[in-house]
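Hi, here's the filled form for the chain we discussed.

Project: internal
Contact: R.S.
Residues: 328
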Amino acid sequence: MLAYTVRRILVSVPVLIASTFIVFLVVVNSGDPVANFATSRQPAPSQAAVDAFARHIHADQPAAERYWNWITGVLHGDWGPSVQANLDIGHDLFTRFRVTVTLVAASLVIALIMAVIFGVFSAIRQYSATDYAITFFGFLFLAMPVFWFAVLLKQAGIWFNEQTGSQFLGTIGEKSPYLDVGTPWNRFTDHVGHLVLPTITLALVSFASWTRYTRASLLEVLNSDYVRLARAKGLRRGKVLVRHALRTALVPLTTVTALDVAIVLGGAVITETIFQWHGMGEMLVQSAQTVDVYRTMAWLLLSAVVVIGFNLVADLLYAVLDPRIRYD
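And the returned structure, exactly as it came back:
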């Protein structure tokens, strides 16, 4: 297992370098931050100031040289210069990452729990009213765009706060995801309140497809020979389901969850924008609007590392869920 993990990490390094280099070329050629600097300020800056700004963001260097300087700088903790004065990209990135990882982790946990529970009920009650109801709501949430569902829940949160006279569902409309003042209990309830609506948004959209995977995989396992043998030997149905069938059925769900982490991160960008969170989503939007190359690349690099890490964890979980899988 250790040797396999080391091999996977070593293989991931060139993949990460190649992908970030391609993305870097796309980002560099997506706009001209120097032209934006020259035309967006009043009074218009002098040519010397424009040239100094170009040198500051390394726009006077070839793209390949800029990438090399950036990737080697990241290894030493230098994430590159931002078009915004006095902005430390590294500090800004990890501050926002703490906010985003709270939202993504909460939504993933809830979506997985719901996917397993509803997927199992749908499989063991195949073609029943329960199965049809779960299928209906699964396809309903699967068909809803993230941005539309987020706006709908935001309006529902505003209505709830107005009707109850509370602010439990977050201070909707204020540009702050967290309350950093007051008693510990007030801070805790404020954190939970801000998490409720965006977490529901991401969790329901994700769980819809994962439930279908769980159902289909469990139905296939329940009809397999070793499960029939276990039932024929007199083992209780619940024990066969939990200890034998469900563990094997979770392997496809593990795969699709790891692959969908990138989709969840993309959905978090939309969700954070709608619910006005100071997370990585807002960072990406601001970076794209200002053509902030190194700030955009910081977001993309950290997201790529997270996705690769999740896929590695998923591969390692296969051996835990299915004892027939071994890594030599």
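Let me know if anything looks off before we file it.
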